[in-house]
Predict the 3D structure of the following.
Amino acid sequence: MMADLSLGMALPLFAVCAMVIAVAGTRLTGIVDELADRTGLGEAIAGGVLLGMTTSLSGMVVSVSAALADRPTLAMSNALGGIAVQTLFLTIADLTYRRANLEHAAASLGNLLQGGLLICLLSLVLVGRFAPDWTLWQVHPVTPLLLIGYLFGLRLVDRSRDHPMWLPAQTRETQADVPDPRAERRSALRLWTGFALLATLLGVGGWLLERSASVIAEQTTLGQSVVGALMTAVVTSLPELVTSVAAVRRGALTLAVAGIIGGNAFDVLFVAAADIAYRGGSVYHAIPDRVALWVVLSLLMTGILLVGMLHRQRRGPARIGFESVGIIACYLVGALALLLAP
């Protein structure tokens, strides 16, 4: 039935999925913030792992479904475009926090390490693209390296929480990650159950979103790269936007930043999952240059973000720092290049 979906049905389905993903992502923020305090994980780990992974489920489903359906361009543009747009969303969260730049107030060793991990993983994607087209059971050697690198990076982030070798200077605007004592009075079972239900909802929403996006790409002149990078990537990234803004309003600043950076690091695994699902060989070599451009842009945007987190500018002229201005410029250039590409 989904294969015979018309454009007139695909567009409303796309809109409904977008709404469901956004609402479910909003609800997740409070649950993950409470789980961070209840379990003792802290906001950096909970944001990067629990929040980052769960809000990325819909995007993962889109990329894997597209790769299984022999649409590698849609799969990769969704994955890589999602990383870029989620980094862009961090500038919106920055605008909602008026006391200081968000990168200054949410200074955290865990966030810095996750940013470094993201750069390493994105670099591996480029290695896969320019390395020889070798595969074993239709899987490129870079794919297991992405999985190993991600798990090793998470271990480093976790160990740094207990034995930090670097600490940010505490200023009047710095928001410390202090557990809420009221979290102990909340039922852990209820929190985990709500977490699982919302995660399932995001996964189903992502599957339906891929079905509708494929129809839109085939029955319009937009093409898979534009639909993937500028439509499905934006929609499946809506949970990161709403959760980050909601976290800022709750005062969970470290969680707001960790949810974006940690989610981006997890999103690189979309590429690994798409390579495993794609049966036409290496997915790294099956994408056009204008989609690969998003890897480079994501590297640049992450580098700018890390510089901003280290420099810790208190307040820019428009209530955002130079890093937010640079990230916005990079994304606009990438979107323009994608739309104007032949």
